[in-house]
Amino acid sequence: MIAILDFGMGNIQSIRNMFKKAGIESIITSNIDEIKAADKYLLPGVGSFDYGMINLKKSSFFKTLKEEVLENKKPILGICLGMQLLTNSSEEGVEKGLGWIDAKTIKFNLEDKSLAVPHMGWNKVNPVNQNSIFKNLEENRFYFVHSYHVVCNNEENILGTSFYGNEFTCSINKENIYGVQFHPEKSHKFGMQLLKNFGEM
C-alpha cells in the first residue's frame, strides 16, 4: 500500500487514479495510523517551496513520516515540488527543506532568452544510473511544469537528467528516497509505468 500524503498541496486525486490504472494499491491520507501501516509514500506538491514546507511541518503526520522514512527506511517518491522539498533549501523561499538529499533548488537562469520560464511541456529524461524506477520504459518522455530545478552536491544522488537550455537534474535518489521533477500523473503511459515501477520496488 502506498500512502499519498495529503498536506494540502497538489492534485493528489490524479496521482491516485494513475496508481489505480497501473494496478497499484494506494490511499490518500493524513492519518498517522494509515501512514504507519503503509509500505511506501508519495510526496506530491504544486506551489511554492515555503508554503509546501510550512504545510508539511504543520501536518499531524510530519514526525511519523520522518521516522518511517529515515529510521524504518520505507521508500518515498517526491513529485515536482515534492522532490524539491527533499533538498536542503530553495532560492524560491527562506524555509529550510527536509535535507534528506544533499542538494539545493535553484531558479532557471538560461542564456537562451528565447526559452520561457517556467519550463512547460514534454521532455526526454536521460537515466544516469541503472535503477528499477526507470525499467520497462520504451521511451523516457515525461511532462514538466517548473521554474526551479535541483542541483545535487553529490553526483551519486543524480538519477536522471533532462535538457532545457542546459542540462539539469530531473530525478534524484539516496537509498530509499526518490524524487522526480516531472509529473508522472500527467505523462500518460510513461508516467504510469514509472509509478508502477515504484509501487513494485
TrEMBL record:
<dbReference type="GO" id="GO:0005737">
    <property type="term" value="C:cytoplasm"/>
</dbReference>
<dbReference type="Pfam" id="PF00117">
    <property type="entry name" value="GATase"/>
</dbReference>
<keyword id="KW-0456">Lyase</keyword>
<dbReference type="InterPro" id="IPR010139">
    <property type="entry name" value="Imidazole-glycPsynth_HisH"/>
</dbReference>
<dbReference type="GO" id="GO:0000107">
    <property type="term" value="F:imidazoleglycerol-phosphate synthase activity"/>
</dbReference>
<dbReference type="GO" id="GO:0004359">
    <property type="term" value="F:glutaminase activity"/>
</dbReference>
<comment type="pathway">
    <text>Amino-acid biosynthesis; L-histidine biosynthesis; L-histidine from 5-phospho-alpha-D-ribose 1-diphosphate: step 5/9.</text>
</comment>
<keyword id="KW-0378">Hydrolase</keyword>
<keyword id="KW-0368">Histidine biosynthesis</keyword>
<keyword id="KW-0315">Glutamine amidotransferase</keyword>
<comment type="subunit">
    <text>Heterodimer of HisH and HisF.</text>
</comment>
<comment type="function">
    <text>IGPS catalyzes the conversion of PRFAR and glutamine to IGP, AICAR and glutamate. The HisH subunit catalyzes the hydrolysis of glutamine to glutamate and ammonia as part of the synthesis of IGP and AICAR. The resulting ammonia molecule is channeled to the active site of HisF.</text>
</comment>
<feature type="active site">
    <location>
        <position position="185"/>
    </location>
</feature>
<protein>
    <recommendedName>
        <fullName>Imidazole glycerol phosphate synthase subunit HisH</fullName>
        <ecNumber>4.3.2.10</ecNumber>
        <ecNumber>3.5.1.2</ecNumber>
    </recommendedName>
</protein>
<keyword id="KW-0963">Cytoplasm</keyword>
<keyword id="KW-0028">Amino-acid biosynthesis</keyword>
<dbReference type="InterPro" id="IPR017926">
    <property type="entry name" value="GATASE"/>
</dbReference>
<dbReference type="InterPro" id="IPR029062">
    <property type="entry name" value="Class_I_gatase-like"/>
</dbReference>
<feature type="active site">
    <location>
        <position position="183"/>
    </location>
</feature>
<feature type="active site" description="Nucleophile">
    <location>
        <position position="80"/>
    </location>
</feature>
<dbReference type="GO" id="GO:0000105">
    <property type="term" value="P:L-histidine biosynthetic process"/>
</dbReference>
<feature type="domain" description="Glutamine amidotransferase">
    <location>
        <begin position="4"/>
        <end position="198"/>
    </location>
</feature>
<dbReference type="GO" id="GO:0016829">
    <property type="term" value="F:lyase activity"/>
</dbReference>
